[in-house]
Amino acid sequence: MKQNRSKTKTVVRVIAFLLVAALIYGALSRLLAVNNATEQQYIHSFYLEPKNSLDVMILGASETFTDYCAPLAWQHAGFTSYPLAVSAAQGIMYPSMLREAAKRQSPGVYVVEVNGFLYTAAERDEFSHAALRKWIDTIPLSANKVDTIRACIPDGQRSSYYFPLLKYHKNWKDIDGVRQSLSMQSQTRAAGYSYTKPFLSISAYLLESDEIPVRQQDLDAFNEQSLRTFCETARELGIQNVLFARFPHRTVIEHGDAVFLKLAAIVQEYGYDFVNFDTQLDAIGLDPLSDFANAEHLNIFGAEKFTPYLADYLTTHYDLNTAHSGKVTDEWERCAAFTQQMLPVCEDNTRRYTAENLNEYSAVFAANR
Q: CA-CA to 251 of 20 to 30 Å: which in 16, 156, 268, 367?
């Protein structure tokens, strides 16, 4: 009898030790797995939004949080929204973003910025690693995370994605980076949400002398399969409304008309929609120089024009249920007020071409929090 009790105690101690070790490992991973504190916080903040409180989800890359400002859309059209994105995200990542969003939200429409489906093979090689790291290393451990690693990371390269401390264990030497990440997390938890949902202002504009790039982007076999996989994932999740959209760019895509006709035909096979806002710059009121920070992104002046235009497009084409609780309404009114305090600073910096990136965590806005 005493021997059995002793064995039981040993088993309990081993289990307790493993649990403590797992908790410590998880805490260290969250602390040290920092590669882009700001964009990772954009993802962390998504999980603070009340479940089923977002009317619109926007998926994609950096265009989604430079060209579009969710609190401005709230003020203009009364709907809640959130860009769930990382810079240089590629189409192969989008099903993971969709599954992660659908676990918490049931929006009236998903808006998917299509640039991620157009990267060339060389661009995929150049940009994929950083984007995948920002996304996979930030989302919580789940079946979706495991599936994402299997889908996006080749065999033999997955260990550090399953166990991020293999990559980030030396980050304890980067005290500033870890401190910045912890500060952002602390500020957001104190507020209870991201004030801008998120939004980034690039304080620059195009000059007549700036070269506008011509890119050889296309729906090659890899991109087409990524697009079809996303559409099939949306169908499996029972998602009815998806708007694939090309946000405004100055970049010229060689044979772009044919590329977007092909893309539109594919998404329409699945019953989804496509709109090319590149062809609507005049209707939006965008100046091809002063409203663009660079060939790929709008600046604050462009975002202030494109956000209400996109909001009107969405409310015209989709039935958005914008009834919300008092708590959610109060949150968004506070976010709108914060954003209104940000805008003049972003505008002034852009006029002066400071080239600074401004977001809600920038020191100049600390007093507004």
A: 268
